[in-house]
TrEMBL record:
Keywords: Cell cycle, Cell division, Centromere, Chromosome, Coiled coil, Kinetochore, Mitosis. One of its GO terms (biological process) is cell division. Belongs to the mis12 family. This is Protein MIS12 homolog. It is found in: Chromosome, Centromere, Kinetochore. It holds the Pfam family Mis12. It comes from the Eukaryota. GO terms for cellular component: MIS12/MIND type complex; nucleus.
Length: 222
């Protein structure tokens, strides 16, 4: 419970610290932050303390209770337990103060990376530096290219749809030409003269018939 409380305390302190105080670059380099390092040291100290104090308590009670009655031994054991708790609280308070000083020392002396030191994965940034304006310009160019690509995709889809329509129209035209060729062949086979001249006469007759029907419709009483 003590360790969990300390962990929650460290997490709250970490959340309230600005990014510069968190030593994020140091954490990237070492794989941990000074806060988590001290938390592990504190946890190790707590484990050792909880293991050692009961043993010391038993040894003291055994040595001091020699020749004493059972009631005196029980009273001595109770006082030893109370002293152990006080000693534990005292050591924890002292170690907490010491850990705060150690954490400050670790942050500024041990886990501090000089400004001229770069991680291997960050060396490319020093070789090819780019300011904020350049990054914004590249992002704008990428957005323009994305929009142009989307427009090209839409145009391609429209052209494909138009091509399908043209294929359908071409199919219908081929059918008409086939029908005309078959009709022309049948006309010649029957000996009716020139197909083109006959077709022209037929079209004129159809036109005259349409005009006559239109005239009848106009003169007919309503």
């Amino acid at each position: 419970m003590e360790v969990d409380a300390r962990r929650e305390e460290v997490e709250e302190e970490t959340d309230s610290l600005p990014p510069s105080a968190l030593k994020l670059y140091e954490a990237q380099f070492f794989g941990f932050t000074p806060q988590t390092c001290m938390l592990r040291v504190y946890s190790a100290f707590q484990d050792c303390l909880y293991d050692i104090l009961p043993v010391v308590e038993k040894v003291c009670v055994r040595q001091l209770s020699k020749g004493e009655s059972d009631g005196a031994e029980e009273l001595l054991r109770s006082r030893a337990r109370e002293c152990s708790r006080k000693l534990q609280q005292f050591l924890e308070d002292r170690f907490k103060q010491l850990s705060e000083r150690m954490e400050a020392l670790l942050v500024h002396r041990c886990f501090s990376i000089p400004p001229n030191v770069l991680l291997p994965e960050d060396e490319s940034h020093s070789r090819y530096p780019q300011d904020r304006q350049e990054v914004l310009r590249l992002e704008s160019s990428i957005a323009d290219l994305q929009r142009a690509y989307e427009a090209e995709v839409c145009a391609r889809q429209a052209l494909l749809a138009e091509l399908e329509e043209q294929k359908e129209v071409q199919k219908q035209l081929d059918g008409i030409l086939t029908w005309v060729s078959e009709l022309q062949a049948a006309w010649v086979k029957e000996g009716n003269g020139s197909f083109h001249e006959s077709f022209r006469l037929v079209m004129e007759s159809v036109k005259k018939l349409q005009e006559a029907v239109r005239g009848v419709c106009i003169k007919a009483p309503r």
